[in-house]
Write a structure and sequence with these properties.
heterodimer, A: 153 residues, alpha+beta, Sufe protein. Chain: A, B: alpha/beta, Aspartate Aminotransferase, domain 1, 4-stranded antiparallel sheet, globular, binds pyridoxal-5'-phosphate
Chain lengths: 153, 409
């Protein structure tokens, strides 16, 4: 395992300190909780849809640098995307996090998410990086089944 | 109180793991409240058992078995002496503090607790001293009551006096908090419980390794601790209880060793402690625990307490000096545990960055979520000290925390 400073990329620290799309959306179509009971990280996602597209995506809550930066970047990357496109990006991100620490990554496909490649060296933090993403995707899945959208793990 | 008649240095040679390097830096191990490191003599005791002494106990009529039995039982005596248990007490070997509390709760549920009885715990308990009592209350319709804390992290004793009443059947509390370090006035509490006709259980997981214990003077009915937090092996711990209670408690598990005689119609059980030690116990663990107790006694628990107190005071000053650091818990009487938060930096990120300096601390809720809720936080970072830690290590901790601030500046 290597030096943890590789985890705290400039971009990650920037999103942690200045989270984008931070705040409630009063008229949200969906509100989703993302909770990691092990460390107490708790975020709420607010989503507005325009047909199939994510028209607006905001969040509130608190967590570690990795989980908060990841939620922030997610709101930026997925706004304007269709559910299908959002799913693809989330899959690529989670796929990358499951690879070996030194495996090459698809930089082009991942774009800014490549900054999280360092998380692979700290398996315990992968859950932090994917917390908001998993909650969002589960909300899509639950919609299909018409179920509840509260998501915890 | 004896002065620390040792420096960290000559003690450190006894702990082989302290030579380890982490990220090419010397290991600075400050997660002792989670588990302490092991001195060579403990490692040797475990190895020696498996290499030259291995046999089951209380069974064989052969030399090795008799020798192993004698050694195992001798540790029982040494444990009792170490914690000041007199002839009224019996030492039972279990897996750790958690199992000891579960054993007591199980015995209590079956023997004494009925609907509307009350169990009194405190707001600073480890989950190990909350959940077994909740289960007991669910099974019996008894009520769990909780003594609140003051902002300093000390028990509100006025509230304790108010909550203790004739329905209280048992008072269970920690001797020292694993988050705040607070040392509770257990002698006073045990006396008040007894006056009210309630039984007392003291969780000594964080006190037995760090401060002199005298169970008889404390007048506790039960005292529990874990071997691995006091330089011994994992998987071994102690329930020290008043023999009169243990005799009346039903066995925790059934099996070999715990019985007097078995027919298919009826089993009669052995006397404590064997009634509670069904199956082959962790013999190597017991022998390792014996070595750990000898080691601690050889240095002197008073000297250890004094050394750790100096470290705590030094660390408290050093960390309070760092901008953005908030110390959690300001009890007058503490063991060497220091919880803190940093403005704008999550405890997990603190711990992760300290790791890159070779420094091991704990971050999280420390299995004390109700206590976190009391302080309105999710987690803290926690440094906890042991007999081998040094002021230089605390200096390094303080410098590393300044570097953490830089990363997030
Ligand atoms: C105060 C306290 N009680 C109980 C326990 C449980 O000890 P074990 O996990 O060894 O059973 C701990 C361990 O963290 C503790 O700190």
């Amino acid at each position: 395992m290597s030096d943890s400073r590789s985890l705290y990329e400039k971009m990650i620290l920037d999103h942690y300190k200045n989270p984008r799309n931070y705040g409630k959306i009063q008229a949200a179509d969906k509100i989703v909780e993302a909770v990691n009971p092990l460390c107490g990280d708790t975020f709420t996602l607010y989503i507005m849809f325009n047909d199939d597209r994510i028209n607006a995506l905001q969040f509130t809550g608190s967590g570690c640098a990795i989980s908060k930066a990841s939620a922030s970047l997610m709101t930026e990357l997925l706004t304007g995307k269709s559910r299908h496109e959002a799913n693809k990006i989330a899959d690529a991100f989670q796929e990358m996090l499951r690879t070996e620490p030194d495996a090459p990554i698809a930089e082009e496909e991942l774009g800014m998410l490549a900054a999280f490649a360092g998380v692979r060296e700290f398996p315990i933090r992968i859950k932090c990086a994917t917390l908001a993403w998993r909650a969002l995707i589960r909300c899509f899945d639950d919609e299909k089944e018409g179920g509840d959208v509260a998501a915890t793990d | 109180m004896g002065q620390p008649h040792y420096t960290g240095d000559h003690i450190r040679k006894d702990f082989p793991i302290l030579d380890t390097r982490i990220h090419d830096k010397p290991l600075i191990y400050l997660d002792n409240a989670a588990t302490t490191q092991k001195p060579q003599c403990v490692i040797d005791a475990v190895t020696r058992y498996y290499t030259t002494q291995n046999a089951n106990i209380h069974r064989g009529i052969h030399t090795l078995s008799e020798a192993a039995t004698a050694k195992y039982e001798a540790v029982r005596q040494r444990v009792g002496a170490f914690i000041g248990a007199d002839a009224n007490y019996t030492v039972v070997f279990v897996r750790g503090a958690t199992e000891a509390i579960n054993l007591a709760a199980h015995g209590f549920a079956r023997a004494w607790i009925k609907a509307n009885d009350e169990i009194l715990i405190t707001g600073m308990e480890h989950h190990a001293n909350i959940v077994p009592w909740q289960l007991l209350c669910e099974a019996t319709d008894a009520t769990l009551r909780v003594v609140p804390l003051n902002e300093t992290g000390e028990l509100n004793m006025d509230e304790f006096d108010r909550l203790l009443n004739e329905r209280t059947k048992l008072v269970a509390l920690t001797h020292a908090s694993n988050v705040l370090g607070t040392v509770n006035p257990v002698q006073d509490i045990c006396a008040k419980a007894r006056a009210q006709g309630a039984v007392s259980l003291i969780d000594g997981a964080q006190s037995a390794p760090h401060t002199p214990i005298n169970v008889a003077a404390m007048d506790a009915d039960f005292f529990v601790f874990s071997g691995h937090k006091m330089y011994g092996p994992t998987g071994i711990g102690v329930l020290c209880g008043r023999t009169e209670w243990l005799e009346r408690m039903p066995p925790y598990q059934g099996g070999g060793g715990a019985i007097h005689s078995v027919t298919f119609e009826k089993t009669t059980f052995a006397e404590p402690p064997r009634k509670f030690e069904a199956g082959t116990p962790h013999i190597a663990g017991v022998l390792g625990l014996g070595a750990a107790i000898d080691y601690v006694s050889g240095i002197g628990i008073d000297a250890i307490a004094a050394h750790e107190r100096e470290l705590l005071l030094y660390a408290t000053d050093a960390l309070a000096d760092i901008e953005g650091v908030t110390l959690i818990g300001a009890a007058r009487k503490k063991v060497g545990i220091l919880s803190f938060t940093m403005d704008g930096i999550h405890p997990h990120d603190i711990a992760q960055l300290l790791d890159s300096h070779g420094i091991a601390i704990r971050a999280g809720h420390h299995c004390a979520q109700p206590l976190m809720q009391f302080y309105g936080i999710h987690a803290t970072a926690r440094a906890s000290f042991a007999l081998y830690n040094t002021q230089e290590e605390i200096e390094s901790l303080a410098n590393a925390l300044r570097a953490v601030r830089e990363v997030f500046a």
